[in-house]
Each structure stands twice: as C-alpha cells, then as structure tokens.
C-alpha cells in the first residue's frame, strides 16, 4: 500500500474508533496512539530491511524515542496489521514477537508481553483481526487471541482465546 494511502487508512481507523475525534487535523496532531503506530512503521521497516549496517540499533533507538514521546512502546520486530487503533495509549507495550491483526483496538495500559526469557522464537501473543483489548489487560506468552474476540479491562490472559469469545478476570476466563 502506498504511504499516503496507509497514513489516511490509519487516520480513518482513529475516526471510526473514537467518537470524540473531531477531525483529521486534530487526530494527526494530538493522538499519541497514532504517532506511536507511525513511528513503529518507520522503525519496523528499518528492523526488517536493514538498509545499512547498524539499522536495527537505529530502529531500537528511534522506538525508544517514540516511547518517551508517546508513552507507548512497540518493538520494531513486532508484526502489526492495518488500522491498529490505540486509544488513550499511555502504558501500552507490544513485544518483539507479538503479532497484531487488522482493525484491532487497544486501550491504555495493555501489555502484549512475554512470560520469562524462554527459548528463541515466538514469546509474545498473536492477536487476530477485529479484537478489542480493554484497559490494563495483559496478554502474556505465545498465546492466540482469535478473530473478533474481546479481552476485558484488567484481565490477565495466559491461554488461547477462541474466536468471538469474551474473556474477563485474573486469570481470564470466558464469560
């Protein structure tokens, strides 16, 4: 997808996901979740293509700069789909081997993290398409959250979530 089309797609995702969004100019200027996603897209390209020696170090430095500016940490090695909307994103963490599908909504304080050092390979969750993860929820380890699922605020997910299910609690269980 061309760059301008991708940027417009991201802005439209914010407009669709946030009824308080008053217009594209406001979204572009003040939505930290959008800024974090855009920074991720740049750092991820550096991480994956390595156009010059040391590109991965530069990608990590830029991702940490974006973290300090937005309060949202997205590792450049993560795989993020289209139209991710991070609403009130302060404290969101997306780990290196996390996979996030299309049209996902994350609220503030969400962690897509690992559980311990573990072996090399997938250490972080895979989140399907059209998933909503509530404020303060933690999805930990190499689990899968299926398409159209919802994770309640404050839930701690350590096992797979079936497509379409809603899970809540500590540990998270289906409603």
From TrEMBL:
The enzyme's E.C. designation: 2.3.1.30
Q: Which organism is it from?
A: Frondihabitans peucedani
Q: Which domain of life is it from?
A: Bacteria
NCBIfam families recorded for this chain?
cysE (TIGR01172), EPS_EpsC (NF041874)
According to UniProt, this protein's pathway is: Amino-acid biosynthesis; L-cysteine biosynthesis; L-cysteine from L-serine: step 1/2
So what family is this one in?
Belongs to the transferase hexapeptide repeat family.
Q: Which reaction does it catalyse?
A: L-serine + acetyl-CoA = O-acetyl-L-serine + CoA
Q: Which UniProt keywords apply?
A: Acyltransferase, Amino-acid biosynthesis, Cysteine biosynthesis, Repeat, Transferase
Q: Could you confirm whether the keyword Transcription regulation appears in this record?
A: no
Note the Pfam families from the entry.
Hexapep
- UniProt xrefs under SUPFAM superfamilies: Trimeric LpxA-like enzymes
* InterPro entries cross-referenced by the UniProt entry: Hexapep, Hexapep_transf_CS, LbH_SAT, Ser_AcTrfase_N_sf, Ser_O-AcTrfase, Serine_acetyltransferase, Trimer_LpxA-like_sf
This one is known as: Serine acetyltransferase
| This protein's record includes keyword Acyltransferase | yes
């Amino acid at each position: 997808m061309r760059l301008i089309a991708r940027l417009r797609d991201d802005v439209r995702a914010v407009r669709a996901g946030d009824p308080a969004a008053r217009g594209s100019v406001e979204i572009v200027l003040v939505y930290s979740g959008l800024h974090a996603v855009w920074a991720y897209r740049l750092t991820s390209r550096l991480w994956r293509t390595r156009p010059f020696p040391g590109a991965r170090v530069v990608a990590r430095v830029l991702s940490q700069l974006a973290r300090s500016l937005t309060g949202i940490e997205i590792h450049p090695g993560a795989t993020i789909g289209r139209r991710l909307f991070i609403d009130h994103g302060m404290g969101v963490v997306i780990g290196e081997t996390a996979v996030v599908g299309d049209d996902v909504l994350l609220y503030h304080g969400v962690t897509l993290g690992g559980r311990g050092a573990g072996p090399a390979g997938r250490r972080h969750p895979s989140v399907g398409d059209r998933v909503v993860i509530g404020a303060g929820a933690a999805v930990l380890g190499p689990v899968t959250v299926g398409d159209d699922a919802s994770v309640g605020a404050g839930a701690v997910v350590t096992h797979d979530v079936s497509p379409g299910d809603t899970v809540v609690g500590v540990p998270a269980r289906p409603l």
